[in-house]
Fold this sequence. Notes:
Helix 10 runs parallel beside helix 12 (270-281) and helix 11 (246-262) crosses helix 12 (270-281). The protein has helices spanning 3-18, 25-36, 51-60, 77-81, 115-118, 122-127, 162-166, 179-189, 204-214, 221-235, 246-262, 270-281, 289-293, 298-308, 320-326; strands at 41-44, 62-63, 66-70, 82-87, 92-97, 104-108, 129-132, 135-138, 144-149, 170-172, 202-203, 240-242, 286-287.
Amino acid sequence: MALDDIAAGAGRIIEAVEQVIQGKSDAIRLAVTVMLAEGHLLIEDVPGVGKTMLAKALARAIDCSVRRIQFTPDLLPSDVTGVSVWNQDTREFEFKPGAIFANIVVGDEINRASPKTQSALLECMEERHVTVDGVTYELEPPFMVLATQNPVEMEGTYPLPEAQRDRFTARLAIGYPSPDAELEMVDQHGGGSPLEDLEAVSDSLEVAKLIEAVRTVHIAEPVRRYAVDIVTATRDNRDLRLGASPRATLHLLRAGRAAAALEGRDYVLPDDLQTLAVPVLAHRLLLSAEAQVARRTAQAVVADVIASVPVPQEQAAPRPDRQRRSG
């Protein structure tokens, strides 16, 4: 698939979602970037700003299987992964798939479930299969978890385990809309939900092809080393008691490939990694006690890391012979 086809296919999805979510182009673009990077997205913000609407709009823009899980304190792990049930007719156990068996899984208010239930997502998000009673069941690609959560300071919420947060490729905060965007939202949403009029502009087969094409985007050795240097710097930062993991490096580079493809490039620039560093890295970091007292944020720490790590000066684009072959 040519780069122009990737940009065009992703552009149709972005335009479709923008019909529902007004004034949040950057958030929508990041969501599509994560999808093309074979990742999972965590949408965190206060209630009422459109977290679930964004997740549902992206799911509806793609003609594929979609399941929604409403995370509540009484939700069980088997509700997510599935359970083996005794069949009286066949005299055998029969597997009943849980809500995780879909191309796009919308997890609403994921931090309202207990840590035990949240942990049911660990295997499927990382390895893309589920093991129940010793039997492994593969998840059909493409597979993406779009989870929303309220800030942990709000009543009735549990903090996500570190292992859970690390499996999300990126976290975004939608934020309040501008007055003009909010006025447009009132006009469009006042008579009904715009989701009802949103038609699918892609399907699971096309998305799988887009993901496969994004994997071919070139990352030069200096850019790969730049990503490693950024992540390594978080491990040595005095404001952090837990830096980013090697998985974070992989996610940063995969997201960089997707971002470059959306721009119509077949190579990743350091600028791509700088733009994605905060959404990809900040939610994985744990601040030190001193940084918390000083009211530092993980986003600010990542910004400082980006400013301190030298940017590679060598050419990031692929060699001319590679450009000729890819064309």
